[in-house]
Design brief:
By secondary structure, this protein is mainly α. It contains 21 helices and no strands. Its main location: membrane.
Length: 478
């Protein structure tokens, strides 16, 4: 066991537990358990808001899969990944103030609360809750596998043991601290991700003999690694443009990101979050994917892309510093998992249990139900991750596309188009969900574009056409 690497990782987990215990004090002092546990009492400042959005979006894909793809494909994948820079900007600029005002007016704690009040329809909320549970359950399992694989490869312990350590770490601080614990630990994890990226990028460049030396090495191996079309010219301009919809502007439709636009304290906090978030996301995404490309010149011959990041860290850094830097992907994975966990729990407790099973539940009943549901969901994901299917990691991007196809227009047009109504929202969600599944199954990358493009177009047309053809919405928008 490599103790030099292990000790910094353990210290990182201890800090996360302390943050969870600190956040749990707010649960006992808050006037509303639901507002505190699932939304942090809407008191997030600009820095914490920016960091929690960055940490939630940054996942195993950004720190493990992304650099691995860049290692194999070259600078073209860096260009593709940079579309994620606009993520925080788009979410807060498009949803931002309008979303926060309406959420407070509706007293909405979850995204589904907002949709239910905006469209005055229980079927909209039921379909939304089912979509969140199904798609995010798969996405969460993929992240747990990524976290366990990282611990397994770095420390050298069996996969099941690594999975148990990861699961226990996440469950403890989410159950005891709720949304505020997630937001505070996301802030710590966001800082770790940024510092880890910078340190590893500089060390990789030095180990490769400088940028000029690395570029020359890559050119000698395969000049296509330096082109915007990939190592085998498989990335066309049309595909790259359409991929930006999936990981860039389409992120507005992801519930786990959108709910953060409901939780900021005031307009000043939102504006600070836009500036901080855009800069930090740009630095992390550019840095991590450049590390993937540059690693090819430093550590050639890595066959499994997911091992590029830990392998290059252990190669170019001393053990103790590698342990600190490898806390970055661990932070990215944990911060994504904890946010998904609290979102799925809120969909079960707030949107299904309280709304339709036990509307008169007492505060104490809701409190214990929330703890139990969060624990049961976590244990269920653990069980699924013990024997993951081979394609599990791809379910992450599959879940992204599915959620964006379902939610993007009911959220965005629900905010800005008064004629949008429940019939338009329902048809848009159903058409988005089914068409995405059909395209993904029978015509992935139809006409050379990412699978998510046509379902989003179809769901938009459906929302507009059905809303115009039926009765106007009842809820007030101003």
């Amino acid at each position: 066991m490599n103790w030099q690497v292990l000790i910094p990782l353990v210290l990182f987990l201890v800090i996360i537990f302390i943050a969870g215990l600190y956040a749990s004090r707010h649960l006992t002092s808050s006037a509303s358990f639901l507002q505190e546990y699932f939304l942090g009492s809407r008191q997030l400042g600009g820095f914490i808001l920016a960091m929690t959005m960055i940490a939630t979006y940054g996942s195993a894909g950004s720190f493990i899969g992304g650099p691995g793809a860049a290692y194999n494909i070259g600078l073209a994948w860096v260009l593709l990944a940079m579309s994620q820079v606009v993520t925080g900007y788009f979410v807060l600029m498009i949803l931002g103030k309008k979303f926060a005002i309406m959420a407070r007016k509706y007293n909405a704690i979850t995204l589904i609360d907002f949709l239910k009040e905006r469209y005055q329809s229980k079927w909209v909320s039921i379909i939304a809750a089912i979509s969140i549970i199904v798609f995010l359950f798969s996405s969460m399992a993929a992240q747990w596998v990524g976290g366990a694989r990282l611990i397994e490869s770095v420390i050298g312990i069996p996969y099941i043991t690594a999975l148990m350590i990861f699961a226990a770490s996440v469950l403890i601080y989410v159950i005891i601290g709720g949304f505020r614990a997630v937001a505070i630990t996301d802030s710590i994890q966001g800082v770790v991700m940024l510092i880890g990226t910078i340190v590893l990028l500089v060390a990789t460049i030095i180990a490769g003999g400088g940028i000029d030396g690395i570029v020359q090495t890559l050119r000698n191996e395969n000049p296509n690694l330096l082109t915007p079309y990939g190592n085998d010219h498989s990335l066309t301009p049309l595909y790259i443009s359409s991929f930006w919809i999936l990981v860039g502007v389409g992120v507005v439709g992801l519930p786990q990101v959108a709910v953060r636009a409901m939780s900021y304290k005031n307009a000043r906090a939102m504006h600070r979050a836009i500036i901080i978030g855009t800069i930090v996301v740009g630095m992390i995404m550019l840095g991590m994917h450049l590390i993937g490309v540059f690693a090819r010149a430093v550590v050639p011959g890595i066959e499994i892309g997911d091992k590029v990041m830990p392998t290059v860290a252990l190669k170019v850094l001393p053990g103790w510093l590698a342990g600190i830097v490898l806390a970055a992907p661990m932070a990215a994975i944990m911060s994504t998992v904890d946010s998904l966990l609290i979102l799925v729990s809120s969909a079960v407790v707030k949107d299904l249990y309280i709304s339709y099973v036990n509307p008169s539940a007492s505060e104490n009943n809701v409190k214990w139900t929330s703890f139990i549901v969060t624990a049961v969901v976590g244990v269920s994901v653990f069980a699924l991750a013990i024997h993951p299917p081979n394609l599990l990691i791809w379910l992450n991007l599959y879940a992204f596309g599915g959620l964006e196809s379902v939610f993007i227009w009911p959220i965005v047009l629900g905010l800005y188009w008064e004629k949008g109504n429940k019939f338009g929202a329902l048809s848009s969600m159903l058409v988005g969900m089914t068409s995405y599944m059909i395209f993904d199954k029978f015509h992935p990358n139809f006409l050379g574009m990412n699978t998510v493009v046509f379902p989003i177009i179809l769901s938009f047309l459906c929302y507009v056409a059905v809303s115009l053809a039926t009765k106007p919405v009842i809820a007030e928008m101003d």
